[in-house]
Amino acid sequence: MTSIRLFTGVVVASVALLATASAMAQGTPTRLRGAITAIDDKTVTIATREGTSVAVKLNDNWGVALVAPVAISEIKVGSFVGVASMGSDADRSALEVLVFPEAARGSNEGHYPWDLQPQSMMTNATVATVAAGGDGQTLKLDYKDKQGVTGTQTIKVKPGTPIVTFLPGKKEDAKVGAKVFTGAVKAQDGTFSTSRLLVGKDGIAPPM
After folding, report:
1. What is the 3-state secondary structure (H, E, C) of 50-95?
2. CA 98 to chain centroid
3. Nearest CA-CA partner of 156 in 103, 207, 204, 86
């Protein structure tokens, strides 16, 4: 039972990084994607995809979750997923799919702007239907956001689309060269801090 509780805590805390806002935060979370160039138990330095180098303070309770690839067969009716996508509501294609562990069901549910690519969107929702086709799968996703607004999105998952999930990680997984994603809080003085790093397992880049 202890290991299950620990895993649940890691997953829920890690998923919280994907929030667009936090009532407890001192500033607006900033999503940082890149590779670790330096790290100790106090600070991690990330070479971001934008070409900058950002030092991020690691809070006292910081931890790590791994982002690991899974097969498309893991996307099932009833799964809770996070799908970054491009296109219009009438023709939307996935950039990536995160299959949430059951312990994280409902995290950041809704359909909202995302910054993976310009004009991309994020949909955290329950899979209502899965339709297989010659060019991948089409998912019908149902959600209810924090304001109680319900909605549906239909998103195509084409072959080659990254599909991942969260696994428990250790601080030792956050090492120089590791690909990383984090939602850092920017303070008024311009410094960044975070409590959780999402590290790509076996060298993959977290696709979200």
Report:
1. CCCEEEEEEEEEEEEEEEEECCHHHCCCCCEEEEEEEEECCEEEEE
2. 7
3. 86
The CATH number that domain 2-67+166-203 falls under is 2.40.50.140
Structure tokens belonging to residue 37: 């160039």
The string of pLDDT tens digits covering residues 1-51 is 434 344 445 454 445 444 433 333 334 589 999 999 999 999 999 999 999
Place of tokens 């997923």: 81
Q: Note the pLDDT of residue 145.
A: 84
CB–CB of 100/107 below 8 Å?
A: yes
Domain boundaries, the chain: 2-67+166-203, 68-165
Element of type H or E holding 110: strand 110-113
What is the reported pTM? Answer: 0.86
